[in-house]
Amino acid sequence: xxxxxxxxxxxxxxxxxxxxxxxxxxxxxxxxxxxxxxxxxxxxxxxxxxxxxxxxxxxxxxxxxxxxxxxxxxxxxxxxxxxxxxxxxxxxxxxxxxxxxxxxxxxxxxxxxxxxxxxxxxxxxxxxxxxxxxxxxxxxxxxxxxxxxxxxxxxxxxxxxxxxxxxxxxxxxxxxxxxxxxxxxxxxxxxxxxxxxxxxxxxxxxxxxxxxxxxxxxxxxxxxxxxxxxxxxxxxxxxxxxxxxxxxxxxxxxxxxxxxxxxxxxxxxxxxxxxxxxxxxxxxxxxxxxxxxxxxxxxxxxxxxxxxxxxxxxxxxxxxxxxxxxxxxxxxxxxxxxxxxxxxxxxxxxxxxxxxxxxxxxxxxxxxxxxxxxxxxxxxxxxxxxxxxxxxxxxxxxxxxxxxxxxxxxxxxxxxxxxxxxxxxxxxxxxxxxxxxxxxxxxxxxxxxxxxxxxxxxxxxxxxxxxxxxxxxxxxxxxxxxxxxxxxxxxxxxxxxxxxxxxxxxxxxxxxxxxxxxxxxxxxxxxxxxxxxxxxxxxxxxxxxxxxxxx
Length: 551
Ligand SMILES: *[C@@H]1O[C@H](CO)[C@@H](O)[C@H](O)[C@H]1NC(C)=O
Ligand SMILES: [Ca+2]
Ligand SMILES: [Ca+2]
Known about the structure:
Blueprint (H helix, E strand, L loop, with lengths): L1 H11 L12 H19 L3 H7 L9 H21 L3 H7 L40 H19 L66 H6 L6 E6 L1 H4 L10 H5 L2 H11 L28 H8 L7 E3 L20 H5 L4 E6 L3 H4 L10 H18 L4 E6 L5 H7 L12 H10 L13 H24 L5 E6 L3 H10 L18 H18 L11 H8 L6
Parallel strand pairs: 1-2, 1-3, 3-4, 4-5
Helix pairs in contact: 1-2, 2-3, 2-5, 3-4, 14-17
């Protein structure tokens, strides 16, 4: 049953931050129960036998909590599965789902061949009818939510000795999010810093370039000082952070083979995000079985232009981010005074959907005036904190109906002939949809959401017309999904591979790759002077400093 816990963790980050979590215990419980049933069917063992082993399928760190869950719920789960072989019914009887009308799983026509569980009388798990005991259930959820908040609420690294928001470990908002700190005790030493003395003795900006040549000239001065270094920063949502749940987690065979136990803890420590492979700040081009696909990013292009930019990236995107809370993210960057004395940054403001997704019906969208106000508040604060010469790109809203158009009749990795259209409506039914207005079979809703996204894009144009910042230049690029779709059509490629299979909502690794590629192309075409010139010393830097210390 501990899988419930895992799914809570994972899906929690879809919920708009920092609102209270929706009642999607129902979703997590149903998915977990469905997976338990799939495992029983694939392994040809009883539900009881799966429950005996289910904690082994999770990371050992979660074993203890898992066993507690199993001991509490297993008796009821076994009994309810005997009464009705359907995860929706079992989740409802357990008290996780309020509405019995919301059904994810179809009633199976074929009777399962798996062996029955023992009669509950002689079963070591006693049914406890916990469905009635909402108090107990509530306290368990509360504990879990508190745990999540502890590690993920602040969106800064967990342990950071010099408190500069750059650290030496990868997860927990570490170097997968912001370039690795090359000295975690000396404040002022961090990626993006302007070297105080040419980095003669040590590397103060963590780009791997320091020391002096045979004539005593500092390499940092010789190669970088006049090269117009520029970092990359992404203020964004789960697209900027690159939310991805491996579809293998829903595959009974792979779960039994240990895919969750081997990879889930890392995923939780990453808030289920993959910023190191994202369109904006991705740098990790190595193969990864649970997040396969090519990597291209604005950061990689900026580093290609100028190797002095090595490690100068900050991904400050947060799942669920919208204009309502974006201003809070500024606190999580390097502090104002330090940022001011850093190299300028190419900064993206990318919140491509949650302002639309937060709406509960078609009259409930944020007004363009409220939206403008929030964005201007954010830009005002940015103007106080960015180094002079910075550039800020606002990225337009997506036309989200493309999700339904592309996926509606495709089968979801859960299997059981469940289509995305059915999944979307089920998520709305249980109140767990991350985007009611786009992820729906109701065309009226999808069209209204598309229309409103055009209105909000217009708000960006209006802002850009009038807004006069002191420290940066401001631009707008459209979210390049349409271009990617055209490219896929022209080349007879399957466009659905650009969308995340598990959530049917985010760009996949392939989608992120094309986003990075097209945003960069658009930037070069529309704002050529936002991009600094190529550094003629790149080859020499590579010859002397190799991979510049890697990541
Ligand atoms: C779609 O949504 C509209 C507006 O909320 C509603 O009036 C209509 O009944 C819905 N259509 C269906 C088929 O549910
Ligand atoms: Ca640090
Ligand atoms: Ca340096």
